[in-house]
Amino acid sequence: MIEKDMMPVSTTDGEGFRELIHFMEPGYNIPSRTTITTHLEARYKNKKAELKTQVAAANVALTTDCWTALTTESYITITCHYIENDWQVKSAVLLTESLSERHTAENLADKLNQSVESWGLTGRVIACVHDNARNIVSANNPARVSWKSVSCFSHTLNLAVNDGFAAAGVSRVIAAAGRLVKHFNHSTPATKALEAKQKQMQLPAHRLIQSCKTRWNSVHDMFGRLVEQRWTVCAVLSDRAETKLTDARTLELRDDFWQLMEDIAPALEALKCATTVMSADTEVSISNTYPITFSLINTHLKTADGDSSRVAQFKSKVRT
User: Fold this and answer.
1) One domain for residues 109 and 139
2) pTM of the model
3) Buried b (16+ CB within 10 A) or exposed e, 273-307
């Protein structure tokens, strides 16, 4: 149970858990944490041996990323992807480990090479897919590793979208919309007032969505939800019983901001669709790269007659 549900070992010390086990089987003695940890380590060794057998004859691709936990500890995760005899795409995490040393290209390359060697994959790694951070790009240089370095298509697309936001002045709208959403999501009275207005205006009872720089397509989701809830949001801001005049003046979005959120929606929708397709983890996605890029450049990001100047600027920058 602890292994399958990834529960803390301390679960077995819980009073409720012990009462449940005693109710089901009064004669059962719950093992100590030490015993359970020993069992888990044994299970890990068995699972690792099984996985080594599965990838023994396969050529694999790696994906890797460095990330930070809520405790501000740094980690690296390395995942391998391979195709079994029945043509099923399989994935397995080879390593998730704390990174106490500096994230230099040399240290990251050492970590990748050590992981590949410990799993017996030396000479059978075709490529490593990673983001565009300079250190991980340099770590996958042919001088340091024996496989091909591949920048993540979706991450590259996300960087292009952010360039478009900056060039077209959309960043100002994102910041203003973010402040508005934060007000509603962090204020219980504002949330309750929004729910009441949604009921009154017969609009969906949806929470507003906050955008996040590291979460792809979150600007699309934030804009879409705000446009959906525009009149309920405006109703709450204009109600002096719910929102102070000073707060309303700070939070209210200009008409041209609302208009831009509507106008840019089709382009953001196409980019979200492309990212979703390219982020699939159970299908081989490389064959989609050219058709998607071609379609974005020649159709969805092509300036149309009805585009406003800022939407045209956004499309042009992302396309470039």
Assistant:
1) yes
2) 0.86
3) bbbeebeeeeeebeebeeebeeebeeebbeeeeeb
